[in-house]
Every structure is written in structure tokens, then in C-alpha cells.
User: Fold these one by one.
Assistant:
Number 1:
Amino acid sequence: MDWEATRISLALAAATCAVLLPFGIWLGRRLATTDSRSKPFIEAALMLPLLLPPTVIGFYLLVAFGGASPLGQWLDRMVGLRLVFTFEGLLAASVLVNLPFMVQPVQRAFAAIPDSLREAAWVSGLSPWQTLWKVELPLAWPGILGGLALTFAHTLGEFGVVLMVGGSIAGETKTLSIAIYDRVQAFDNAGANVMSLVLVAFTLVALWVVFATGERGKRHLRER
Amino acid sequence: MAALSVRLRQAAPIPLDAAFECAPGELLALVGPSGSGKTTLLRVIAGLARCAQAQVAVGAEPWVDTQRGLVLAPQQRRVGLVFQSYALFPHLSALHNVALASGRADATGHARELLARVRLDGLAERRPAQLSGGQQQRVALARALAREPQVLLLDEPFSAVDLATRQSLYAELAELRRSLAIPIVLVTHDLHEAQRLADRLAVLERGTVVASGPLDEVLARPDVAHLVPGVDAGALLHCQVREHDARYGLTLLQLAGGGMLRVPQVDLPAGTAVRVRIPARDVALALSPPGDVSIVNRLPGELVALQPLDATHIEAQVQVGPGVRLRARVTREASDRLALVLGLPVWCLVKSVALDRATLLMTVEEVSSSCAPPSVPPPATGSARGAGQAAPPR
């Protein structure tokens, strides 16, 4: 059992969730309430990570983050941040890859809130922030929690992008799914099995959270 | 407390052309078929919709003045709005729905008071889904009042409840009204509702106010009838219950301008003020007092107006007392046969069956306050109650 890889996987999943929570709420809510013409394009771009091979995403991220790219050079110069073969780079890749998993459920949750509820809040004197905090977030919460659970589970299971962007540096970028691959390469099926079971358990719990909160959300909307 | 004045005009996306006022304590009904822009008007007043050229003010305080580029956000207007679907917050109890809108330090206490006022004291902890339609409407009303609004707006507030509940909600709104000294605007497509509750009426057609003024005056206009579905032109008369004739099961009503009407007995004490509507189609004309007909209600008067309605019909107006006019719909053929001309003395024959309980449109508040002496009913022409004037205290 590779505890270090488990720690990195959990840290990566938690950090991805932490970054995507505010951003996902912002973007999901924007997409749910806007009727801008660019909306279909943004939605299509958000779905890309679901359909492209992880190697393609990983390759372009490598190119974009690398020392030869303007972005890579700029980040290095301004904040001394290197994104290739580092945990930070892994996190950046993970955030991008997980966008659809977070934004989609959040967007659907906000879209399910009738406009009249927002308007009722405004007419009741609630500012846009108070409306978000006291009316929209409590109603969208099941969707947000669902997005977080999906993001967490998907981050634990991500393999291709992590391998491309992070390499397999023990203690830095070697996650559980890569550790499993390593074990199988080394004919250590027993070790691979234990870690795989851990991954199955985590993912199952996360998905259970998704469906349980989904049920609660449906009840809320039925109650209307 | 200040009057609400509204002046709106725009060509697109929804054409609007409306100007009306509503005094404190007065209830203005915006009536018109669906799609006529009633709700849009209400939303502009609340700040939820924009209008190209608009002036909305409460007293001296402008809410919208597009000429000066002033548009207050809904949060900056002290306005109470009851949505058609109530739009209660589904995740909050009735109490918290109301408390959220209260600006007071003791929001919960204030909310409890308001829920008691709409008779929901026992149900404060329930969520909207656990309340009936009528109860939800009352929570919505309490929430609208929680901000201590300067104007109360009601968007078809009775459309989502059944008929029986509606009757009791009418009574409650009428009672609540007496304690509210603010302008109230009610949007409805149901003219009967407007008749029961409103002091003033504005009739909308495709975004344009085509008739507005005191209730009696607007209802008396023959051109209004075709605008509001389900309503015939007719006269709205102010009466007082004079006495009951138990032997024949009749009640005698004293008309405000003189004259008497006999209607099927109603269980209201003598002296109660009621409004009675007599549809034009239920009034026949005769040149002499008819002796041998079964109709008991006959009022002498003078023909004061004749207006063609369509190819077949003419509407005649008959002055039966000072400020009291009846309207009669007669055929052109009858009009020619009787040689109807202005100034002719005629008899109006009112089918007494037309004055059953359904047409006895007593306003609930007048009935419920019958212990107090009823106010002097305004003349049927309504000219004494100008735009900015307050309704008489009840």
C-alpha cells in the first residue's frame, strides 16, 4: 500500500475541490442565468475535457505550461511557479479537466431555481449577495455538493493527464492511480489490488453522496 | 402615506401606454385579458421590469424617472409584491419566509405578528409545501407586508386557489385593507373580483389603459364590456337594505338616488350598504307603467343617452334618480317601434330574478363593517372622487 500516493491523491482531490467550489458556483450560476449568445460555445468548450483523450489534454497542457511557452515563462518570471512535473501543475491540470464535472451540476441546480424566487427576494429587500446566500445557495446546495463529489471522485481516478503533466515523481506527483499502474508493471498484483479497492471504495462513497443529494434536491423542487 | 402615480410609455418590446394614480387606502384594480400587459405594469412599478419612458412616484419620492435617468432598484423601493404563484422560498418555514423580508431588528417577532394578522399563527413552522394554496397566499401577503411597504402590489393573488377559499380570502383582504393606509394595486382578469374589492378600475388592452376611473364610472361605460371577458355592460348601484318581507322572501333595497328594488331575501341587517349590479340585458323599457306583467321592479325615469352597440342592439341610459342611471339593451327594431328619443319619459323594467345573490355584489368590507353606520355612498357618476383623493374612511 503506497500511503504517500494516497496522500497526494487525496490532497490533489481536496485542492481541486477547493479551487472549483467558488469558481464553479460563479460560472455555473452565470451560465444558468445568462442568455448571452456565447453561452453555447462556453458550454461546448466546458464539455471538451469529457470527450478528448486524456493524452491530448495532457499534451497541450505540457506545451502550455512548459518553459518554452510564453505562459510557462511568464509564470516562472512573475511568481516563480513551474507547472511541469510539480504538484501545482498537477492541480492546474486537474482543475481544468474537472470543470465539466463541477460546473454542469451547479448550472443545472441554479437553472432549476425559478426567476420569481430571485425577484421575490429582491422585492423583499434582499441585496444580490443576500439573495445568493439566503435563497439561491440553500436551494442549489444539493447540486453543488454533487459537483464536489464528482470532482473529488474523478480527480482520484484521473490517470492520463496526471501522467502526462506530472510524470510520476514519488512524493510530488505520483498519485494512487499511477501507483497502481506501477505495481502492475512490477507484477505486484496484490499491492495493485489493495490500492484499487481503496479507490473503488472512495469513488463509491462519492457517487453515493451524489445520488443521495440529488434525491434531496428533487424533493426540494417537488415541494415547490 | 402617499399616493402612487404611474406614467408609462414605450413601443417595444411590449407596447405600453398607461397613466394612473392610486391614493393611500385606495384599491386600484388593473383589469384586462391575459397578455394585455397588466403584469408588466406591475413589474415596472416593483422595479423588476424596465420601461422606455416611465415616471413612477410615491408622493414626492420618485422611484422611476427616465427623463432624469433615475431608476431605483427593487431593494430601494419600499414595495410589497404578492406574486401570482406566490414565489415563497421553499426551503424556509412560513415564519422565516416572512422574517427574511422584515427590516426590523426583531424580525422573527415582527414575522409572528404578521402571520397572526393573516391568521396563520399556528402554522409558522411549516414549509410552503406543507401549506394549502390559501395558506400560501396568506404567507405571501404577510411577506409583502413585512417590509412595511409604501405600495402593495397583488398579481392575480386569487388565481391559484379554489372558489371557496377565494371567497374567504376576499373577505380577509377587504378586512386587511381597512388597516392599511397605502395604495394597493390589484392585477386581475376577473372583473367580479375587481368589483368586490376595488375602488378604482383601470382597464388594459394591449398595454394601453383604455378606461380608468372610479369603479362605477368605468363599469358603466358600454365600450368597456367587450374588453373584459364575461362581463356585460350594466349599472352599478349603491343601495341600502331597508327591510325584509319574510312572507314573500323578499328584501327591499333603497337606491341611493331614490327608488326601491325588491330582491330575493338576503340575510343582511337593515341599513347595510350594498352594491347591486344590473346588467343592461336584464332591463327592458316601456313607455307607460305596465299593469299586467310579472316584473316587480319598475323604475320611472328619463331617457338620457342612446348608443348603438352593433347591427342589432342599442344601449339606452335612463336617469332614474339624481345621479342614478340604469342601462338597458334594446334592439334597434324596438327602439324604432317605441320611437325612443332623448328626454323621453320611460319605465325601466328590471327582472327581479336578475338580482339574485350572485349579482348582489356587496363588497365584503361593507358587510363586515355593517355595525358602524355606512358611509354615504358616492353618486353613481363618481365624479366627486377625483384621481388624487382618498377613499372615504370606512
Number 2:
Amino acid sequence: MEYEFLLNEVLQKVSIEKKEDTYVFSDGEKTYLADIHQISPFQISVLIEGVSFRIFTAKDKDSRYFMIDGQQFVVKEPTEQVEAFRKGEEITAEGTILVKAPMPGKVIKICVSKEDEVRKNQTLAIVEAMKMENEIKASVDGTIKEIHVSAGDLVDSEKPLIELEP
Amino acid sequence: MFKKILIANRGEIAVRIIKACREMGISTVAVFSDADRLSLHVQIADEAIGIGPPPAADSYLDMDRIIQAAQKTGAEAIHPGYGFLSENSSFARRCEKEKIVFIGPNSDALELVGDKVRSRQTMEKADIPIIPGMKGIVKDTSAIKAEAQKIGYPVMIKASAGGGGKGMRVVFDEKDLTLAMEAGMREAKSAFGDESVYLEKYIEDPRHVEFQVLADNHGHVVHLFERECSIQRRHQKIVEETPSQALDPDLRARMGETARKVMQVSGYNNAGTVEFLLDKDKNFYFLEVNARLQVEHPVTELTTGTDLVHHQIKIAAGEKLPFKQEDLEQKGHAIECRIYAEDPHSNFLPSSGKILYFKEPQGPGIRHDCGIYSGWNVPIYYDPILAKLIVWAEDRESACQRMIKALDDYVILGVKTSIRFLRDLISHPQFRNGETTTSFIQDHFADWTGDKDSQERQMLALLAAAFDSLHGSTARKDIHGAKKEIYSPWLSLGKWRLGGK
């Protein structure tokens, strides 16, 4: 079977086949013969040429997480949007960019008004999470089409804050 | 001894204090905001009282609600932990008035050490070395030249209204002084509306070394040696260790004595920490007193064989310190890494969300102070510290190796953490050599990506994902079988109740 994954937001193509007790896995560069066992929903044991690896895993509604030697990898199914845009943004059918908060938090300040012309990297809003203020910046030059939130609102990473027309 | 203590905090430190109380046979009262109803500290306490909505100002910082919770439950003492109300002298005073013991310094000492100007004056009077600087603000260029000469170059121009680096200028030579002062004044004027600046000695590439002190209510003061906390990011400590590589026995003894003296002249009691800056020539300067239990207290506990929280409680109950200065010694080496919910790949942005799976490292010499469990949602309202990983070993090199292996074994899935960043930091040759200064991260980790040598791990992640996809997400279907493991072993531990309820 061939699969396409987004690994930490980068598209990767791989293949895997089961052959008797082992798996033939290829990451496009190299092919590996691996003995793989799922020990629990959270733990996978892998032997490749006698070398042992322990992989921890978990999943939520749209991501799978893997942790290997203290490093976490997030694997998602590829979608067109994620490839083209920065995290925290989404493009609408009309071609405007929906700017979202990168994490849930509280809107401290909206720094722009509707119809404002903004430059790339200009601060659009400030969102506070965990005692830290985070500036949400414009990814391109454009015009503010719509502002969906106001100061004091609690937002999650799904809710659009501002609509920007490039 | 107290029968019941209220812990006015949350997270790993509340858990740490609750455990200490349970060990001492003291009943515990947790307080929680609406965002913390399911937090670990609430679950392991004997009693738990809701104190309001999630924002700290309406809950953990609300003195009335906390005092009411103590009165309602009959708690005789309040342990404030760190942060929140721990260094608030009006809260300490309020507790004194309500006849509730505040487990920390008396309110007068707390007020004194919390006031930068007054404590600086007090220390100067007591011949404690402070960073040389002017007492007044700069008026004209001839006066500043004389002052700069007296202090010695390099000097730093600082805005008196200031902060955040605005108006700050470092001057290495007299010929640059006038220009720098004028620029600093202009910047201060535009940033704060006040052009006043003053001069202070500039300490190049300093180390941050602090001394733990315990003082009982009977005038006995001991220090429990140093902690080196130079590894900082945006002035936030992230790795601490003891002993410091920069101290020899003579310097350690002199700094320790100075720390004791700082506490004596401040009229301080209970646990506290005296912070110093140490320059390249091994001159040390008093910085401030942290009038509370510190986040990094475990490294001191592991190397001195003491339990600082037990001592805090005993001191607050009026007991005498059970040891003298000469009874204390350092043994081995301890390192602490703070595990934050933050994304080292995108500028250390805080990361909240659900911890899908959590497994702590174990083994000889490993201690893990933690406030989290699998299935817990990390709230957005508070400091993103999740846990602290502390190791002890016979020497520094072994402690580094032990820490690296422990970080390798640390699993937190679902939220982003600094674990891999910390692993790379401890592995860095400069760190291994003990060359730690406050600019360490800026110098060596400014462009860290975590991708170094990660090809194999990346391949394994893809392999595991492909394996999972091939088997049609078996794990997802197996949610009922998984449920037992989702919850942490903490929950199965019984409570320790007085009188065997």
C-alpha cells in the first residue's frame, strides 16, 4: 500500500507491504525490513535488522502523534489547504484568507479596522494564552475585509479572527 | 503541628506540597478555578474548594476567596507555593490578621525584600555587595563622567521609568558616553514619557547563581548551598543545577555567608533564596531575594538530603531547625529540566490541548514532579509549566547522561513540549563543559530546529503511521480497551486520611 502523509506539515510518500511475519517499508529513499508489533494503543515495538525501537503513539480526531526519543511527530492526512498556507490560516472560496489564532486564548487587542490596508508581517491582533501575548501577523499585503472578534473574546484555534484579502 | 493546610496554588507545585503534607500526616485542602476542576492537585487532596472563574485574578489571586476557603474548611495554615500570592505581603498580613499561619516569611520581611530600592539600601548599609551604580538620576554630562569613572567601565545606562530594554545602552569607553546618554534619554522619553536615566555597572556575560536559605523563627539561619540557573530563555529559567561549575569551596563559603547575612538583616524567616550575579572575574553581586519556595528547589533537596517543604511547614509551626550550618554538605550533582507546554518549533508559543498519552521516565536517580496525567486538558489560563524532571548522579557528567536518557524516555503526546529542545541543550558540548551563562541559549540555540540527526526518527514515525494505516486504525477502535491506561496510576492511590476515615 502507498500512503501520503503530512509529517510535521511536510508532505511525505511512503509504502508498506506485509510479507509473512515482517513488513517491507519504504520512505522513498530506502527500503527497510521491519518486525512491527502494536503492544497497546499507545505503544509500538519495531525491530529493524536486530535494532530495537520503541515508538509511542496516540491520536485525536485529525492527527496521529508519534514520540521517539523525546521528539514528537504529528502526522495528518494531506489536504490542499495545509500545504499552501501557513498554520492558522485558511483560504475561502472567494479567495480571502481567514486568519485564525494559532492556539486557544483571549483576544487582547484588534490592531486593525475594516478596510485597512495592511503590509506583510503587520500585527493584526494580539491574543493572550498562558500569560503570554502573541502577535498575530499578516502573511501577505492586503486589505482587511472583515473582523469577526473583538477584544476580550475567547477564541479557539478554529474560529476565524480576521478576513484578509490579498 | 498543623492538622490541616490549605494549598493556595495549582499544578505541579500544589501536588508537591500536598504530597509533603500527606507524608507528615497533615490533611490537605486544595483550591481550584473552574478551569482546574479536573486537575491533579484537586484529585489528590483530601478536600477541594472552588474559588471562582479561570482568570487568576478572579481565583488564585483572590485573597478573600482563599481566606474564606481556609476558614470554611478549618485550615490552620496556607502554603502559597510559588507565583500567585506567594510573595504578596498584603496577603501575608491578611493571614496574620485572620490568625491563619502563612507558610512563608513574615509580612514585614516580605515587604522589605519585595521593594527593590529599600532592599538595595538595606544591603548596602550591611556591606553586602550590590551592583555598583548611581543613587540618583543623571542631570548633566560632567557629573555622569565622574560617576562612570567611579563605577568603572563598562557601564550601563538605564531608564529609571523603564524596563524591556528601552533606554538601555552599554558603554565600554568614556568617549562614547555622552552620545549614548543622549540616545538613552531620547529613547526613555519616547517610551515612558520620562527622560531620566541612571548608571549601573554592566556585568558582561554573567552567571546567575542563587543560594537556598532556611531560617527558623528562633534566629537560626542556614544556607543549603547554591543553584546555578544561568540557562534562561527570555529571562525564564529552564535548566537549573547544583553544584555550580563556577564556584570553588572558598567562593561558595563566602557567597553562602553573604546569603545568610542578607536574610538576617532582612529579618527573614522560613525558606527563601538569595540571587546573585557572578561576573567573569568571580565578583558576586546581590540581585534580589525570592521570598518563596523556588521552582528549582528539588536540585537542592537531592544534593543535601533535605525536604524543603517539610522544613517550611515545621518552621511555620514554630519548630527549630534540626541542623546547623556545619551539619550540611553537598553530595553528588543534580540537574532539573522544566517541561513546558510550548512549541520550540514556532518560537516557543504556548501549546494547550489534551494530553492524549503521558509516560514519565523512571529509574535510579530520577525524580519527576508533575501536575499532569493522560487525558487531562492543559488550560490556557496559566503558566505553561507541566512538570519538572530532576536527576541526581555522583558527578556532573553522569547527571548529564542520566538526564539525556530520561528525556529520551519521556512521552507526552497531544500537546507540544520542550522535551527534545532540552535534550539537545543538555547534549551541547558547551553545556557539558559547564560553560553556562545567561546568554547560552541566545548564543547556541537561536536557530535551533530540532532536525539535526532526526532522519531515523522521522523514518520511524512514517513507518508507524503506515503500519497504523495498513491496519485500518486498530487503535482508534480499541478505545474501550485503552480506557484503563488513559488514566494515571495516581488515581488508583488511596488517600491518606487522619483517623482512618
